[in-house]
Amino acid sequence: MPHHRPGGSIGRKTAVENAGVPQRLGAGMAPTQAMLARAIRKRVDVLCRELRPAALGLMEAFAIPDEVLAAPIAT
Question: What's the whole-model pTM score?
Fold first, then answer.
Protein backbone atom coordinates (compact mmCIF):
# COMPACT_ATOMS: atom_id res chain seq x y z
CA MET A 1 0.00 0.00 0.00
CA PRO A 2 1.40 3.45 -0.86
CA HIS A 3 2.68 5.63 1.93
CA HIS A 4 0.57 8.73 2.67
CA ARG A 5 2.57 11.95 2.81
CA PRO A 6 1.54 15.06 4.74
CA GLY A 7 -0.24 17.51 2.48
CA GLY A 8 -2.37 14.87 0.80
CA SER A 9 0.10 13.36 -1.67
CA ILE A 10 0.55 9.62 -1.82
CA GLY A 11 3.86 8.10 -2.86
CA ARG A 12 6.72 5.83 -2.00
CA LYS A 13 8.58 6.08 1.27
CA THR A 14 11.81 8.05 1.31
CA ALA A 15 15.16 6.37 1.98
CA VAL A 16 15.14 7.90 5.45
CA GLU A 17 11.66 6.52 6.17
CA ASN A 18 12.70 3.10 4.84
CA ALA A 19 15.77 3.17 7.08
CA GLY A 20 13.52 3.64 10.09
CA VAL A 21 14.65 7.13 11.09
CA PRO A 22 11.79 9.10 12.61
CA GLN A 23 11.22 12.51 11.04
CA ARG A 24 10.88 14.09 14.46
CA LEU A 25 12.44 12.95 17.73
CA GLY A 26 11.34 13.73 21.26
CA ALA A 27 10.18 17.30 21.72
CA GLY A 28 10.33 18.32 18.06
CA MET A 29 14.02 17.56 17.52
CA ALA A 30 14.97 16.81 13.92
CA PRO A 31 17.26 13.84 13.24
CA THR A 32 20.94 14.79 13.05
CA GLN A 33 23.13 14.31 10.00
CA ALA A 34 25.01 11.56 11.85
CA MET A 35 21.76 9.71 12.55
CA LEU A 36 20.70 10.01 8.93
CA ALA A 37 24.09 8.82 7.68
CA ARG A 38 24.02 5.85 10.07
CA ALA A 39 20.48 4.90 8.99
CA ILE A 40 21.33 5.16 5.29
CA ARG A 41 24.51 3.11 5.76
CA LYS A 42 22.51 0.47 7.63
CA ARG A 43 19.90 0.32 4.84
CA VAL A 44 22.60 0.05 2.15
CA ASP A 45 24.17 -2.86 4.07
CA VAL A 46 20.79 -4.63 4.21
CA LEU A 47 20.20 -4.10 0.48
CA CYS A 48 23.70 -5.38 -0.38
CA ARG A 49 23.14 -8.52 1.71
CA GLU A 50 19.84 -9.11 -0.13
CA LEU A 51 21.52 -8.61 -3.51
CA ARG A 52 24.58 -10.78 -2.82
CA PRO A 53 23.00 -14.14 -3.84
CA ALA A 54 22.13 -12.68 -7.26
CA ALA A 55 25.46 -10.89 -7.85
CA LEU A 56 27.09 -13.54 -10.06
CA GLY A 57 23.97 -13.91 -12.20
CA LEU A 58 23.78 -10.13 -12.62
CA MET A 59 27.43 -9.94 -13.67
CA GLU A 60 26.85 -12.69 -16.22
CA ALA A 61 23.65 -11.06 -17.48
CA PHE A 62 25.45 -7.77 -18.11
CA ALA A 63 28.32 -9.65 -19.85
CA ILE A 64 30.96 -7.71 -17.93
CA PRO A 65 34.39 -8.81 -19.24
CA ASP A 66 36.64 -10.79 -16.90
CA GLU A 67 39.34 -8.08 -17.17
CA VAL A 68 36.93 -5.57 -15.63
CA LEU A 69 35.87 -7.96 -12.88
CA ALA A 70 39.55 -8.68 -12.11
CA ALA A 71 40.46 -4.98 -11.90
CA PRO A 72 41.98 -3.90 -8.55
CA ILE A 73 38.96 -1.66 -7.83
CA ALA A 74 36.62 -4.68 -8.13
CA THR A 75 38.29 -6.62 -5.31
Answer: 0.47
CB 21 within 8 A of CB 29: no
Total residue length of the chain: 75
Q: What are phi and psi of 11, to 5 degrees?
A: -165, -170
Q: What is the pLDDT of residues 4-29, one digit of tens each?
A: 445 444 556 665 565 565 555 555 55
Q: 3-state SS string over 3-56?
A: EECCCCCEECCCHHHHCCCCCCECCCECCCHHHHHHHHHHHHHHHHHHHHHHHH
